[in-house]
Amino acid sequence: MVSRTPSSRRKTLKRIGAAMGIAWLAGCSDGGGPEDDENGDGTNGGTGNDTGTDENETVGGGDNESDVGGNETDGNETAGNESEGNESDTGGGGASGAIEPGTTIDFSAETTAWVGIAPDSIADEENPPLTLQSGETYEIGWSEGDGAGHNIEIRDSNDEVVDDLSTEVVTEPGDDQWLEFEASDEMAQYVCQPHQTTMVGEISVE
Fold first, then answer.
1. Which of 16, 64, 79, 100 can pair with 91 through a Cys bridge, CB separation 3.0 to 4.6 Å?
2. In this predicted structure, which of 50-64, 86-100, 183-197 has the lowest mean pLDDT?
3. pTM (predicted TM-score)
C-alpha cells in the first residue's frame, strides 16, 4: 500500500483547481455573454444603425443656383414703344409748332378771351399763341360769339394794325369777320379792339 504524503495531496488539489479555473475561464470567454450581445444577434453590440448619411447629401447641390440666364429682358426692351409716330401732326400750331400754310384759324369770341375752335391744335385754348410761316397765306376770324360787340385785327409790336387787317365791331359774326393775309415778320398779335386787354393772343412768324 502506497502511502501519500500531505505534500503530494496538496499538489493534486492544486492541479484539480487549476484545471477547473481554466475550464471556467474558457466558458466565460466563449462568444461573450448576453451583456456583450446587445442586439442579441451575435454582432457583439455593433449597432448596425449606419444611416448612410453620405447618400443623403444633396448631390449636385451646386446646380441649385438660379441659372436664369434665359430670363433676361433682352426681348422686353421698349425699342418699339418709341413715340416716333405719336406726334400730333394736326396742322396745328401754338406750342406744338407752326400752323400749316392755308389753314383757317377759327375762334369763339368771348369777352374774357379768344377761345380756339380750329385747327385742332388750338381747340378750347384761350388766347392760344400762333406760329406762322413767313410768306405763307392764312385766314383768321371768329364764327361764334357771346353776343357782345367784337372784331378781330392783327397788330405789330407797336400796337399798330398791320396792312389794314381789321374788321368792323359787330355782335354777330359773319363773312365780314374773316381776314385773309400773308404772314410777315412785323405781325405780333391778334386782338379784339373793344376787349384788347383780355382778347389778345401772340403771333410768331418764322
1. 100
2. 50-64
3. 0.56
Smallest Cα–Cα separation from 146: which of 172, 127, 164, 126? 172
Q: Closest Cα to residue 138, out of 97, 179, 175?
A: 179
Judged against a pLDDT cut of 90, whether residue 84 lies above it is answered with no
| Distances 75 to 70, 82, 83, 98, 123 between C-alpha atoms, Å | 11, 15, 18, 38, 40
Sign, Cα dihedral of 38, 40, 45, 48? negative
Q: Please state the rounded mean pLDDT for residues 160-180.
A: 97
Domains and CATH numbers, the chain: 94-205 (2.60.40.420)
Is 89 strand, coil or helix? Answer: coil
The grid coordinates of residue 29 equal 470567454
C-alpha to C-alpha distance for 152 and 107, rounded to whole angstroms: 10
Name, in order, each residue with C-beta under 8 angstroms of 176's C-beta and a sequence gap of 6 or more.
167, 168, 170
| The three cell numbers locating residue 53 | 448619411
CA dihedral 15, 19, 25, 28 (to 10 degrees): -150
pLDDT at residue 85 greater than cutoff 90: no
